[in-house]
Write a structure and sequence with these properties.
Helix content: 25-40%
Order of helices and strands: EHHEHHEHHEHEEEEHHEHEHEHEEEHHE
Radius of gyration: 24 Å
Oligomer: single chain
Structural class: alpha/beta
Shape: globular
Distance between the termini: 38 Å
Number of helices: 14
């Protein structure tokens, strides 16, 4: 929770960008609205006052040259109201059916409200299956781009009718972050039932303090308590908002948590950011008075393909690396992953599927009772990648040099298991001296292949 600096309101279209979608000079903004901001939690009656205020805010933002995408929950709640049900069903097919009833009525409500301002809207329903296919992912990105070029407001929701538990986004907080990454957004606003993030639940702890600026989400999780489960008809909570913020800032999109019942604050927040940038001396800490600001570092944003690998795909297995391979892909070459550095394979996956890349490290902690040092082992994820071989094939070639692959399999597709363009590393801070896994035939101190050009990275 350190101070934020520099260029908080510069449109990403004016910075280096891999998928420029806004050439007008304005900002590209994603607004995520939760179920509790759309419908009454008990009666499921739509909150027309709040929704009208949201629509007016979107119109105001558009009039200032910004482009806006809505990610809206609420289909299930609206469906419950239409069907006269007192509570959300427990079985997934029933929930999907209720959401199918509500989605059309929710869009009709939005269309009626935006029509008062002569603004066209579009429905965009997504699933993880759509994004797992690179072609479909790019098609969705292009559709967003054209809708915004047509001056349309896209309204995004998960396609609940066809989604199943294994591939669901889980909540619309995550979906909004992925949408922000897809359209190269400048800001993601998570509209919720509190005005900002607090160090504890302000409803139960009067000493809870507001958190205004966050630059390190991992550090924040150690300093605050976030246990809110979300509303009775929603699927999110404050925990999911931290996850969403982490996803969005990895794509270079700053994220702001603010009060959903006061959407007009969005304009005030953007004005405050702009005023700071225009008037404050360079290096002056940014101290906002509204919302919680998760600051993205524009120079640390991942390129589109690697962000897609990390957040658009579902991992189907895990490859465990030895110390030499960890060093090669995280510290020195940052190149392709070869079979020689793979120690273990988990999962049953095919070629061109996404897998986790991990290792096992030795950790030392003090026992709370005896005060003595206790050693243990911990699995640490390094990143994710798309493999060139199946799980069964990698099991046969693991620990071997690339030159041995044809003799082991009877054929060779490529020399590496994961090429560098398909390998997204998220953890470069691993101390390789603590890695406990060893490749077959390695010395007690671990294989050093990769430093001599044979085996792990190039």
């Amino acid at each position: 929770m350190t101070s934020a600096k520099a260029d908080l309101a510069i449109p990403r279209s004016a910075r280096h960008s891999y998928r420029n979608t806004n050439t007008t000079g304005g900002l590209t903004i994603v607004l995520k609205l939760g179920t509790s901001s759309i419908c009454d939690e008990k009666t499921y009656v739509p909150k027309l006052k709040e929704l009208s205020a949201l629509v007016e805010t979107v119109v105001r933002l558009r009039s200032e040259g910004h482009r806006v995408v809505l990610v809206s929950s609420g289909a299930a709640a609206v469906g419950l109201k239409r069907l006269g049900l007192a509570k959300k069903p427990k079985h997934i097919p029933q929930v999907q059916a209720v959401a199918a009833v509500g989605q059309g009525r929710l869009m009709a409500l939005y269309d009626s409200l935006f029509a008062q301002h002569e603004v066209a809207i579009a429905q965009v329903l997504l699933t993880r299956d759509n994004l797992a296919d690179r072609g479909q992912y790019l098609n969705a990105c292009n559709t967003f781009k054209e809708l915004l070029n047509m001056d349309v407001v896209p309204i995004v929701n998960e396609n609940d009718t066809v989604s199943h538990a294994e591939i669901r986004f889980g909540d619309n907080d995550t979906l909004s972050a992925i949408t922000a990454g897809m359209i190269n957004a400048d800001y993601l606003f998570l509209l919720t039932d509190v005005d900002c993030l607090y160090t504890d639940n302000p409803r139960t702890n009067p000493d809870a303090k507001p958190v205004r600026v966050v630059e390190d989400v991992a550090k924040l999780k150690e300093e605050v308590t976030v246990t809110s489960p979300g509303s009775s008809v929603g699927t999110g909570g404050m925990v999911t908002k931290l996850i969403a913020a982490d996803l969005a800032i990895a794509a270079g999109c700053s994220t702001i948590i603010t009060l959903g019942s006061s959407p007009q604050n969005i304009v005030k927040i953007l004005d405050e950011i702009s005023m700071h940038r225009q008037t404050a001396p360079i290096g002056t800490p940014f101290n906002p008075t509204m919302g919680t600001h998760f600051i993205a570092k524009s120079d640390a944003a991942m390129i589109d393909r690697k962000w897609w690998i990390l957040h658009g795909l579902t991992a189907s297995g895990t490859l465990f690396l030895d110390a030499g391979a960890v060093r090669a892909v995280t510290q020195r070459h940052r190149g392709s992953l070869f079979a020689a550095g793979i120690v273990k394979v988990e999962g049953n996956f095919g070629a061109q599927q996404c897998v986790k890349v991990a290792t096992v490290v030795r950790t030392v902690r003090k026992d709370d009772y005896t005060g003595e040092s206790v050693e243990s082992e911990e699995v640490v994820e390094i990143g994710r990648g798309i493999v060139n071989y199946t799980a069964a094939e990698i099991m046969r070639i693991r620990g071997h040099k690339s030159a041995d692959i044809e003799g082991l399999l009877g054929y060779v597709d490529t020399a590496c298991v994961i090429p560098r363009d398909n390998l997204a590393i998220t953890n470069r801070a691993i101390d390789v001296e603590t890695v406990t896994l060893q490749a077959a035939g390695a010395s007690p101190k671990g294989s050093q292949a990769g430093s001599d050009g044979e085996g792990r990275a190039e």
